[in-house]
Design a protein that fits this description.
Chains A, B: InterPro entries: Sig_transdc_resp-reg_C-effctor (IPR016032), TF_LuxR_autoind-bd_dom (IPR005143), TF_LuxR_autoind-bd_dom_sf (IPR036693), Tscrpt_reg_LuxR_C (IPR000792), WH-like_DNA-bd_sf (IPR036388). The structure is a homodimer. Chain A is of the alpha+beta class. Chain A is built from ten helices and five strands; from the N terminus they run ααββααβαββααααα. Chain B binds a DNA duplex (30 and 30 nucleotides) through α7 and α9.
Chain lengths: ~240, ~240
DNA sequence: TTTCAACTCCCCCGATCCGGTGAGGGGTGC
DNA sequence: GCACCCCTCACCGGATCGGGGGAGTTGAAA
């Protein structure tokens, strides 16, 4: 089980098309000798892209049922930085347990280990290794391959970002410092009058920034603009 | 130069106080045999925290001069996912070249390699290795230690996040499904009328959800509520 | 030098949102 | 049985936002 991932990573780095990723992930699964390996990109618009070894029926069902919104792996990893064992997530809600049952019924193993990965503009992805075994075996596995998995996740996301079309046209429209300040103040609950006072400018000037930011962000209204700024990671609350 | 970083990483994982990070980073620098190693957390509100081996005079100057805003390493890495060699950044602006001259004059080496790292809530940090040598030597070094550096950056950020005060204290009262839907629709730019139509309910009902969500999230207004929902990761846009 | 982006200020008015107060039915849990 | 929460619907007045004008300075890039 001494997975030799270095050559696979090198191959991954050479990959020139999206389809190659599927091949690579299958080789990695064999190398790690686990049931499933999945790379799952959660687009900030709710779209999803992924490749992995789950049953396609399950993947489709996951999408159709909107499991993205209730999957504890997603919500749990989204608030964490470190890789997380599925056992440590919150499965207490009824919806979560039903989801888990459904997953197990579609060939998903009982053990999981997911690594959250983040890229520019609020990109968020998961690299998950999944298996069926007892807790002790699983802990030994994750402990042993933790570093390798982090690296694999990193390399995988790097490739996925390269292949993603329509990346880096948007961020060209960076917000100006004042616009960022305006967005930030709105995001923490200030209304226009308060934000203007806080920046020591007239309310009208503030409005100019907001409108400008709205335009640059392609937003339909202020709330939308703040939401986009947040999910692209250009402001933080 | 065969850096044995594994034991240092293990030590890092055991670190129980912020001060330990400074010790660890110095050991890592010696292990890699480079001039400088820096971990630099960049809060978008302008605050900074970091530890590393740069001359404290330079660190203070960096902050005082507001170099954060013009440093090509920051702006360049912020839009990238993969580690980046300083030579590949855009140094064309006058301000950037002046900054570089100032840096070199304060003991910063001519070669640099920075790894962007991102955490939850838009957290952004840099792990940088810096040295003085010729291009060929540097390329060989980065090529050789790329994987190790990625891992070190990852572990370092993990620790920094653990020590960061005010992380994950939120009890996070859960929103009801309808409230989540309402927040999500608002976050993608719908106004109340559109969102209500989209959910096939009256606008008044929608308002009840929004108000309820606002209350649960402790938000001052709708924009604030959406911002909180986003940054807590309970909705995804 | 000229252009251009960022920053600052002003008025008006219709559209939209907020806050308060109200009511009723359905489900879950003690 | 009785809370308690979730879902649904309604009216109104005042606050806020959004879009439409126009105008001046500064500083950096081309």
């Amino acid at each position: 089980m001494a997975a030799q991932i270095a050559p696979i990573l090198d191959d991954l780095e050479q990959a020139s098309a999206l389809e190659h990723l599927q091949t690579v992930i299958e080789r990695l699964r064999d190398s790690f000798a686990v049931d499933h390996l999945v790379y799952h990109w959660v687009n900030s618009s709710g779209e999803q892209y992924g490749c992995g070894t789950y049953d396609p029926v399950w993947v489709q069902r996951y999408i159709d049922q909107g499991y993205l919104r209730i999957d504890p792996v997603i919500s749990g990893c989204f608030q964490r930085f470190h890789p997380v064992d599925w056992k440590r997530l919150d499965w207490s809600s009824k919806a979560a347990r039903a989801f888990l049952q459904d997953a197990l019924g579609h060939g998903v193993g009982n053990q999981g280990f997911s690594i959250p990965i983040r890229g520019p503009n609020g990109q968020f992805a998961l690299f998950t290794v999944n298996h069926s075994c007892d807790d002790a075996t699983w802990e030994a596995f994750t402990e042993r391959h933790r570093k390798d998995l982090i690296l694999v996740a990193h390399y995988f996301n790097q490739k996925a970002l390269e292949f993603e079309p329509g990346r880096t046209p948007e961020p060209a429209q960076a917000l100006s410092p004042r616009e960022l300040e305006a967005m930030t103040l709105l995001a923490v609950g200030y209304n226009r009058a308060q934000a203007a006072q806080s920046l020591d400018i007239s309310e009208h000037t503030l409005r100019v920034y907001i409108e400008s930011a709205r335009f640059k962000l392609g937003a339909l209204n202020t709330t939308h603009a703040v939401a986009r700024a947040l999910s692209r990671g250009i402001i933080v609350v």
